Amino acid sequence: MEISKPHAVLLSSPGTGHLIPVLELGNRLVTHHNFTVTIFVVSSHMSPAESQVLQSSLTPKLCDIIELPPVDISGLVEPNAAVVTLLAVMMREVRSSLRSAISAMKQRPTVLIVDLFGTESLSIGDEFDMLKYLYCASNAWFLALTIYVPFLDKLVVGEYVHQKEPLKIPGCNPIQPDDVVDPMLDRTNQQYFEYLRIGTEAVMSDGILVNTWEDLQPTIITALRDKNLLGGIVKVPVHCIGPITRPVSNAKSTDLFDWLDKQPSESVIYVSFGSGGALSYEQMTEVAWGLELSQQRFVWVVRPPTVEAADAAFFTAGKGGDDPLSYLPDGFLTRTQSLGFVVPLWAPQVDVLNHVSVGGFLSHCGWSSTLESITNGVPMIAWPLYAEQKMNATLLTEEIGVAIRSKVLPSKKVVKREEIETMVRKIIEDKNGNGIRAKVKELKYSAEKALSNGGSSHNALSQVEQECKISMQRQKRVSTQ
Ligand code: UDP
């Protein structure tokens, strides 16, 4: 390891959707900012998709990846505990092995960077005299809510979802009660207390990295820095470093890409609900009929339906077993043979979105999927299911203007086939519908500019690099005294 380079230790919480942005941040620190990077991942519950993502990150191997020993939380959580609770407890239990692993490193690392579920490990940074950053892999509006929720907790009486008025966050767009994040749905549930704790701990870092860019969310970013608004709570620098997304891969010779190669430009709608999303059987049937009725070309990543929560596939992304295609309506595959391509369980999403034939994305609005859509200039049909996706859908449709959405909330009601047909036609047939295609292309270039040399996101990570170099010099002085 080169002693002159800052050494960043990144901690990822479990879940493919959490691992991907951490890996990509690590890669960017190595390739653009002269860091050495070690990434700690939590190996309990590693899903097939997660293992595949980890495997593919080894070529080329830019970061050292270390799997922390599995943690057994079975005696620590209620049966049917929410995903947020499970993640919070796992990350609490993993602290001692993280501490031992850092302590065993020959050279003291410069900086510890944790994602939202890792905030309890920030104090380990202090123990080893390291800088400590929080990495919010989602957007600035969600970050604003997260750090403000301990204040809402004191201001709001009753359940958030029962409020008559939107929830006010200083300097930001208010949040509709229907849009609150999952852990705010029930103020007596453990996941709410974990979320409150995360909000409190987030601002105890030395800085916050957020996966957005200055020109995408200027108002909220200003509020996060303004001492009279949220900046009164967030006293540390907020660095907008995004969009951090997976790169397009070069290995694309499969039946799917052979099929895509034969389709006209921007004629295909890509349908996928992220790493953890699943639909009810009834909703899956309506999506199938909606696609068929629209007579538009499609690529659909199909999972077995869920009778439980919409995040049912969170810990099992990409896992086989039940044949997902057996749940499709009778004759669907034959009738749509020339129209569409069905992919069981998991697709190479970034490569699909990057293909010239793809002209729309029916998406659950996970933040990585959102950024992948924007950076490939693909407009969206917003279909939020869980986590912060309802806020993301509102941001994309009402604020940023790169998506359309259904009149009903898919997490509450079944979206009917006729409405799906209309939305798919609108996004694919009406090429300039609502100007959203033009807007998403404009943002694609704005994102490229932010990441390029001298761009705002590049500069933000250069500043982090500088802060780390100053800290290294201080560490060196202390060790030679
Ligand atoms: N993803 C993928 N193939 C799939 C489904 C998802 O490659 O079939 C990737 C997607 O490209 C994104 C991540 O998994 O990088 C999902 O993250 P996101 O934040 O969109 O949603 P989450 O899964 O966390 O809800």
Keywords:
alpha/beta, seven-stranded parallel beta sheet, 17 helices, 13 strands, binds uridine-5'-diphosphate
Structure ligands: uridine-5'-diphosphate
The Rg value, from CA coordinates, equals 22 Å
Described by strand count, sense and barrel closure, the largest sheet is: 7 strands, parallel
**Number of helical elements:** 17
Strands side by side in the biggest sheet:
3-2-1-4-5-6-7
> Share of helix among residues?
40-55%
Q: Strand portion, in percent?
A: 5-15%
- What is the count of β-strands? 13
The low-confidence parts are none
Structural class: alpha/beta
The H/E string reads EHEHEHHEHEHHEHEHEHEHEHEHEHEHHH
User: Could you tell me the mean pLDDT?
Assistant: 93
Compact description:
With 481 residues, the protein is α/β, with parallel strands linked by helices. It has 17 helices and 13 strands.
Can you walk me through this structure?
- With 481 residues, this protein is α/β, with parallel strands linked by helices.
- It is built from 17 helices and 13 strands.
- The strands form two sheets. It has a seven-stranded parallel sheet, sandwiched between helices.
- The radius of gyration is 22 Å and the shape is globular.
- It starts with 6 loop residues before the first strand and ends with a helix.
- The model has no long low-confidence stretch (mean pLDDT 93).
- Bound molecules: uridine-5'-diphosphate (UDP).
- Uridine-5'-diphosphate binds at residues 16-17, 20, 246, 272, 274-276, 301, 346-347, 349-350, 366-369, 372.
Task: Break the fold down into its secondary structure elements and pairings.
Blueprint: E1 7-11, H1 16-33, E2 36-42, H2 48-56, E3 64-68, H3 83-93, H4 95-103, E4 111-115, H5 122-127, E5 131-136, H6 140-155, H7 190-202, E6 207-210, H8 218-225, E7 238-240, H9 255-261, E8 268-272, H10 281-294, E9 297-302, H11 332-335, E10 340-344, H12 349-354, E11 358-363, H13 367-375, E12 380-382, H14 389-400, E13 403-405, H15 417-429, H16 436-451, H17 456-480
Parallel strand pairs: 1-2, 1-4, 2-3, 4-5, 5-6, 6-7, 8-9, 8-11, 9-10, 11-12, 12-13
Helix pairs in contact: 1-2, 3-7, 6-7, 10-15
Uridine-5'-diphosphate is lined by residues 16-17, 20, 246, 272, 274-276, 301, 346-347, 349-350, 366-369, 372.
